[in-house]
Amino acid sequence: MTDTIAHPTEINKTIETFSKESLTILTERNRPLATTLYRPQAKLKAAVMIAPATGIKQQFYHSFASYLAEQGFGVLTFDNEGIGDSLTCPLAKCDASLISWGRHDLPAVLQTLQDEFADTSYHLIGHSAGGQLIGLMPNHEALTSVFNVACSSGRIKNMTMPYRAKAMFFMDAFIPVGNLALGYTPSDKMGMGEPLPRGVAAQWREWCNGAGYIKTAFGKTIHTQYYDEVTTPALWLYFSDDDIANDKNVADMLRVFPNMAAEKRRVEPAEFGLDEIGHMKYFSRKLAAKAPALWEMATTWLTQHSD
Questions:
Q1: Which of 101, 187, 240, 278 would be 192's cystine partner, CB 3.0–4.6 Å?
Q2: Contact 289, 261 (CB under 8 A)
Q3: Structural domains in the chain?
Q4: What is the pTM of this model?
């Protein structure tokens, strides 16, 4: 299904057009992923994949993807295996994991981005887990840049009360009980996105309970990874009112990418006349309408690192 869209952007009040198309792609695991392609009608500036947070459906990023397309960027959003329209079996039988998301889903989406938008530069905008898993991608070198939002290790020990208590309950009680009783984690009941495949939730719990997030699995369940090899220029944007991606956890995650050319930008919501941004609201069109400079950070970065 293809829709042609023309409407004023709330960011700069100009009119751009783009087409939106639903695509189903296959990973190396031969699992289908639901994706959405945003193709600008104007001259292509670059191509961008938006890698979602844990359990967050691609629809959450629609407004932001539309904005990027209106600015001349080709965009591909997707649901990870077991999430949203990429859930193709009973959830209790889904064997997806955070490892498979990074090793199979992300590479398949990047390859599709390259197939759909030839002869340009390719970029990843990662939200939380979407930026954590880059080092599992065997084709990570195809990325020209990374723009990470609220990406950190999510280490529970580095969180402050009262959020730390909520995180401990979710990770150490809710996930194990849900997986045991249902065969999956009903994280939607806790306001934590979509229900999660048991393997995703179990790894999430294990990694957030240790230093360096995914690093806790190196040499155990992960024997091939590329974190030391990632040298891609990256901007890590995070917010002072984010209980998860705080200063300590951003630094903890960055240490897992020892050779990444990373810049950090910590934002106070008050700088932009906002009361809150937190872990999720950067991608809200309402927020961007109040503070257009926040989304302009992304397009400025992408433009600076495009061919």
A1: 187
A2: no
A3: 2-162+224-304 (3.40.50.1820)
A4: 0.93
